[in-house]
Amino acid sequence: MTRTFSLRTAGSLLIGLLIFAGLASASTITAPNVDGSRGGSIWINEDGTPVDAYFAGVVLINLSENGQQYSRDTLCVDLFTDIYIGVTYNTTVIDPNSVPDRNLNRVAWLLNNALMPTQGPVYSSALPSKYWVTTALQGEALQLAIWDITTDGGDGFSSGRVQAATGLTDPLMLQAAQKYEDLSFGKSSDQAFVYVNSAIDSGAPAQMLEGPIFRDGGPTPLGLNPTGIDPTPEPGTCLLAGLALVGLGLVRRPGRTSSR
Questions:
Q1: Closest Cα to residue 211, out of 107, 62, 131, 123?
Q2: What's phi and psi for 240, nearest 5 deg?
Q3: In the chain, where are the structural domains located?
Q4: pTM
Q5: Distances from the Cα of 43 to the Cαs of 52, 129, 182, in angstroms?
Q6: Which of 11, 190, 215, 236 has CA 20 to 30 A from 224's CA?
Q7: In Å, what is the CA distance from 137 to each residue of 19, 171, 229?
Q8: Could you read off the pLDDT of 124-144 as tens digits, one per residue?
């Protein structure tokens, strides 16, 4: 039996995809794996129910366009929508401003300052290196913070749809997630890649991902020019999203019928 983990997407995401598809690069993505060195299993209260998010942290993706493939790091920004490891999806690359009311600009600041500096010395950060995501606990904490920022506005983990699970959530991880929220409060950036994904066959929305800007010559959102931006990241945010890494490479949300 294969365990599953799903993340529901807000209806506005599909609307956003339709509105902005003509303004952004159309391509495909595949998530071949997740990064176990920068993420892991966490417990949270999701809508009041304790849930084991089998994986929360950095999601590795391959972005393809015109026969070229680009490897990038991302994090989930929807807690309630499905995505499957190893499955190819259509994707539209947009900037954080194109998705209103989800605080993706705040997430962008966190991604550029906590995740991107680990890619190499060319990428600087407004944060001390102790906050850069280099460990499993930091990856879990960043993803949890992102979940809360995009779902509840980043108001902590005592109320809302994303809460700490009493006696189950790792207190050290929770403390780190709260720190990422505190560090990103009031920060914003439009310098990030947002991947609005959909099933190739049906067009159904899949998990939306967000990652820092890589200057790799790949597809970019309208208005962003990774080759010309200042290497110092602008302000933004951090959030945590959960993925379930399962035996057959499926990423979904606990609580639904298991696949066989």
A1: 107
A2: -115, 130
A3: 11-247
A4: 0.79
A5: 5, 27, 21
A6: 11
A7: 37, 11, 30
A8: 899 999 999 999 999 999 999
